[in-house]
Amino acid sequence: MIDPKVAGILQELEQFGIENDAREADHQHMMLNIQKSTGEFLYWLACAIKAMRILEIGTSNGFSTLWLASAARETGGKVTTVEIAKHKVEMARRNFERAGLSAWIESRQADAGEFIKQQDANAFDLIFLDTQRERHVAWWQDLQRILAPGGAIVCDNAVSHAHEMENFVRAVQATRGYVTSLVPVGKGEFLILKASGAQ
């Protein structure tokens, strides 16, 4: 279950994101957080598959990371979260400290594509993609390589930005060894499951 202290910070960050994005004109300074229902879905999915090694692409202010880290605390795992914007990395790290979940989070400031390329094969049990949808197709080969057999990938905004996801969805569905589903949660989650025998 979500710790009451973490739940309070999540509620605070959710409201902050809504208010910030309503007044902020600069896309780089928007939080663009997931919805609470998506956070709950990520938490329960990570717990259900007993994900030990979790990768998040797109930290923002750490709202989604805290959901994943709460699951990692349950499973005994860890979240590696990647964000290129320095001000968001710093903001998120402060939130991780406040929530008492820093021990379950490795925060990295890096380009997502370059980071993914550098990871070992079968390095992660769960990957959450919440940034740069137009780059997902280019990442797909490396995502297959770093996702462990039996693991899962979740892509946010699969309904709200369906047109931006079309090429990626087609690429995944054309790849043997993967099962997909569109989960009607939040802004739509494209769920990808890697068969236990897939390489």
Structure notes:
With 199 residues, the protein is α/β, with parallel strands linked by helices. The protein has a single domain (4-194), classed as Vaccinia Virus protein VP39 (Rossmann fold, 3-Layer(aba) Sandwich), CATH 3.40.50. The protein is built from seven helices and seven strands; from the N terminus they run H-H-E-H-E-H-E-H-E-H-E-H-E-E. Strands 3-2-1-4-5-7-6 form a seven-stranded mixed sheet, sandwiched between helices. Helix 1 runs antiparallel to helix 3 (63-75) and helix 2 runs parallel beside helix 3 (63-75). The mean pLDDT is 94.
Got a strand count? 7
Unreliable residue stretches: none
**How many independent structural domains?**
1
Q: Can you summarize the main beta sheet?
A: 7 strands, mixed
CATH structural class: Alpha Beta
The largest sheet has its strands arranged as: 3-2-1-4-5-7-6
Q: What spatial form do the alpha-carbon principal axes imply?
A: globular
SSE sequence, one letter per element:
HHEHEHEHEHEHEE
Mean pLDDT: 94
Q: The CATH topology is what? A: Rossmann fold
Main features:
199 residues, alpha/beta, Rossmann fold, 7-stranded mixed sheet, 7 helices
What is the gist of this entry?
The chain has seven helices and seven strands.
Give the topology, please:
Elements: H1 4-23, H2 36-48, E1 53-57, H3 63-75, E2 78-83, H4 86-99, E3 105-109, H5 112-117, E4 124-129, H6 136-146, E5 147-155, H7 162-173, E6 178-183, E7 189-194
Parallel strand pairs: 1-2, 1-4, 2-3, 4-5
Antiparallel strand pairs: 5-7, 6-7
Helix pairs in contact: 1-3, 2-3
